[in-house]
Write a structure and sequence with these properties.
Elements: H1 3-6, H2 13-32, H3 41-51, H4 58-68, H5 75-97, E1 106-107, E2 110-111, H6 113-117, H7 119-138, H8 145-159, H9 165-171, H10 180-201, H11 209-233, H12 236-239, H13 245-249, H14 254-278, H15 286-296
Antiparallel strand pairs: 1-2
Helix pairs in contact: 2-4, 2-5, 2-15, 3-7, 4-5, 4-10, 4-15, 5-7, 5-8, 5-10, 8-10, 9-10, 10-11, 11-14, 14-15
Length: about 300
């Protein structure tokens, strides 16, 4: 795990659990990605740069910490799902930055994939990361096939056009205004929804899946509201990516539609709803409360 990830958290008990979860996620991602020099080396090198170093890893951390709240669950399936969700997220970032979408030159404070490797390779990186995500679940041990099949359904929905990330990216291109809540549920909340629900499924907590799905969705919406505000009021040096792109490109943005104060008010309501569903912090959920606090606060350089 990089020093930057370690420094993202203090040394309190719940933060220590989050750092452990981060290390778990990084290990799984390193295990799954082809080595940088494996042919085709240009593609695999670009894939590594798209995944490492990561941002907060909020989505896979949510999956891991939900499972931890039940005692850890099936580590094999938690690791596969957490990594698969992050791979889909990283694929979407590479696509987002392409000249045909946001035309963003930087991501996480570094040159965007297409800037370094060219548009053709960047397109293949998005395809490869998305494919690797599903391959990761498909390659689960045979004895875990029922759980893997269930998780595959979650991830396909979260990535797809009807309720997922691809649909969210497509909504940005619609010629008419789109409903913000629908856009947020697709674009950002879908992977959080799958992460939280999947963490419960990996622990056999079927009766809690709906609740965790809602918690994940709300966390994703709060994060998107934060990003909307930062795109309007932030700067590239702090965000590690260009600011002001939503206004320039006519993208859906809550801060542009209802103002910064209105967006902040809505964000506070959503975070309160998350905390209510989580309940008072306990030994089992304290790290989850800490994660919610971290991923919804104003971002610094590792945003995204």
């Amino acid at each position: 795990m990089t020093d930057r990830l370690k420094l993202a958290w203090t040394q309190s008990a719940p933060d220590h659990l989050v750092v452990q979860a981060q290390a778990f996620v990084e290990e799984w991602l390193l295990r799954l990605l082809p080595t940088r020099d494996a042919p085709p080396a240009r593609l695999h090198g670009a894939m590594h740069d798209a995944v490492f170093p990561g941002g907060r890893r909020a989505r896979p951390l949510l999956c891991r910490l939900v499972a931890d709240s039940y005692g850890g669950g099936d580590d094999e399936m938690v690791g596969r799902l957490a990594a698969a969700i992050e791979l889909v997220h990283c694929a979407s970032l590479v696509q987002d930055d392409l000249p045909c979408f946001d035309d963003a030159a930087t991501r996480r404070g570094q040159p965007a994939c297409h800037v370094v490797y060219g548009e053709a390779t960047a397109i293949l990186v998005g395809d490869a990361l998305l494919t690797l995500a599903f391959e990761t679940l498909a390659n689960a041990p045979v004895r875990r096939a029922p759980v893997a099949f269930r998780l595959m359904g979650l991830l396909t929905a979260a990535a797809g056009s009807s309720h997922g990330v691809i649909g969210g990216q497509a909504l940005e291109l619609e010629p008419h205004p789109v409903e913000l809540e629908i856009y947020h549920r697709h674009k950002t909340a879908a992977l959080f929804r799958a992460a939280a629900a999947g963490g419960a499924i990996c622990c056999g907590a079927e009766s809690d899946v709906s609740r965790w799905s809602r918690i994940g969705e709300l966390i994703g919406c709060a994060l998107q509201l934060r990003d909307d505000m930062e795109d309007v009021g932030g700067n590239a040096a702090d965000l590690g990516k260009p600011a002001g792109r939503d206004a320039a490109l006519g993208r859906p943005n809550a801060a542009l539609q209802v103002g910064m104060d209105g967006c902040q008010h809505k964000r506070a309501e959503v975070i309160d709803a998350v905390r209510e569903l989580l309940g008072p912090p306990t030994t089992e959920t304290e790290a989850l409360h800490r994660l919610v606090e971290e991923v919804t606060r104003p971002a610094v350089r590792q945003a995204g």
